[in-house]
Amino acid sequence: MPIDEITAAAAGTWTLGDQTVNRMGFGSMRLTADPDPARALAVLRRAVELGVNHIDTAAFYVSPGGTLGVGTGSARYATELIRAALAPYPEELLIATKVGPGYDPESGFTEALTPAQLRAQVEENLRRLGRDHLDLVNLRLYRRPSPVPLADRFGALAELRAAGLIRHLGLSNARPEQLDEARGIAPVVSVQNSYGVDAYREDDEFVRLCGERGIAYVPFFALAGTRREAGAAAEENPAVDAVARAHGVTSHQVRLAWTLHRGPHVLAIPGTGDPGHLVANVAAAGVRLSAEDLARLG
Fold it and tell me: Across the strands, what pairs with 266?
């Protein structure tokens, strides 16, 4: 089957909170790099055409500057690009966003720690997306100690959930003990951490634990690995390359397929601003790895 005929549905589904989504989703961070917003709008619309109904974003995904640190011209927010491309939103579309980090063109990156600051970020996401509620909000944590307890920050989001501004809550860049603490405050439907076939494998047990608890595990940088915002580079993993050759697919597709094979609760959110890369990424939903393949990949 041609890759442009393989849709996100080939990955199967998972229920995030009360909404069922295809396990192959889309990450919007890289949409902002191109100074021509028309290209980003085309990618988003094509993603939905290919069955993507889970889009990850954040108000601090903006260029110039922002997470990628690139670009020229006027400010391009991923959240506003999503609104321009897809509003009025399809009923089946779930948009997940993040709070904690923030970005101001004048002062650079900030961190929301107080209830007022977190509410301001939630309201910014609502405004830029053009929504009256947010489907899923992940509290993005830092691995360094915070001056404000997790319970205070997650509790503030739980109050916004109770008020109807947020439907579901998750954590990003979290550790198991932080998940335990947050679950004592409000339901947690997802954990979003860096993770890939040859990066951050110390989280293998955490991935399994989330599955046991019925919590989605949503890896980011599954392609970029430790290069993170710098993006995916030429592959240097002989096992990945060998499996790709055996299946007649790309190494990037094997990496995404491996991610989906980690469990039915694991979702993929590869991001790109290139329409061709988008089609290839979604087509990875149809790659079936054997037990021998998985053993080879580790």
Answer: 217
How many angstroms separate the CA atoms of 97 and 102, rounded? Answer: 12
- Among 15, 7, 80, 9, residue whose Cα is nearest residue 216: 15
pLDDT over 50 at 230, yes or no: no
Cβ proximity of 277 and 284 under 8 Å: no
Strands (E), 78-153: 94-99, 101-104, 108-111, 134-140
The runs of H, that is alpha helices, within 187-237 are 204-212
Global pTM? Answer: 0.94
Which residues does the annotation mark as catalytic?
Answer: 61
Is 207 a residue whose pLDDT tops 60? yes
- Identify residue 81 by its one-letter amino acid code: L
Max Cα distance, the chain (Å) = 54
Answer whether 127's CB lies under 8 Å from 119's CB.
no
- What are the tokens at 57? 């974003």
Distance CA 115, CA 110 (A): 15
Are 119 and 80 a contacting pair, CB within 8 Å? no
Return mean pLDDT, the chain: 92
Question: Could you give the count of Cα atoms lying within 13 Å of 288 in the half-sphere of its Cβ?
Answer: 3
